[in-house]
Amino acid sequence: MPVWWRNSKPISRTVLAGLVGLACASQAQALSCLPMGPGDVYRIVAKSEDPFVIVEGRVTFDEALLPKYSQSAPEATKTPTRIPAQVTGLLLGEQYFDQPVDGEMTLEAHCLGPWCGSLKSGGRYLFFARNTEGKATAYLEPCGGFFFDAEDGSAGDIVLQCHQGRACPSKLPDDMEGAVDLPRSD
């Protein structure tokens, strides 16, 4: 188990399927994504029974390993793709992002039909990773969900507000109005 996992205070009690269900809604010919923000994911993960940690840092990996949908082999993307990655940054501790992180993790990229989760290698992200038996796994979903751009620091500020018991803003709509429809694959 990497030192940075042993020193973390995991956020726990989410059901991965619940988060994925909130983040993605499948329709017959299009995928609708709810605009979840870091506060929404924080609240879901905080209620989880699974141990999660929150990291703000750079993620590097081989982008060529990301799944790509092909009409000639649609079954190829039904199984999640596991990609080794390196993370360098800070782990959320008791009150702040104050625990250095420099280690390996796994990205698990999922697809729903022709839409696949993706990420840019070398980017700075705030992300939520599940800690299973001392191994970190971060999920790449077609609708986002677990990763947020952290270049300007605003995603980390929102998570800190939530973590410290202050206002925890939501981007979720009160109804399905406001969901983003991705282009059809016709």
From TrEMBL:
<protein>
    <submittedName>
        <fullName>Uncharacterized protein</fullName>
    </submittedName>
</protein>
<feature type="signal peptide">
    <location>
        <begin position="1"/>
        <end position="30"/>
    </location>
</feature>
<keyword id="KW-0732">Signal</keyword>
